Structure formats: C-alpha cells, structure tokens
Amino acid sequence: IIPLHLPPGDTSAERTVQMDGTKEQIEIAKQLVNEVCSD
Fold it and tell me: What is the pTM of this model?
C-alpha cells in the first residue's frame, strides 16, 4: 500500500512494487501519487 502523503520525489520503486503490478501500473501509481503531492 502506498501512503497518500509522500514527500516530493519519494515515489520509490520499493513502495510501488508492493502493489504487485506491471510496469505500466507502477507508472500510473506514481503519477497518482505525484498528483496527490502537488495538489
């Protein structure tokens, strides 16, 4: 599970891989996290 409030740039692969998704899903997850951080 990825914390909703990550410091900017803290979208580490270790966190995202825990979702057990494809590279595409990981990239989408990173984008979602970035949107939350920049909101």
Answer: 0.40
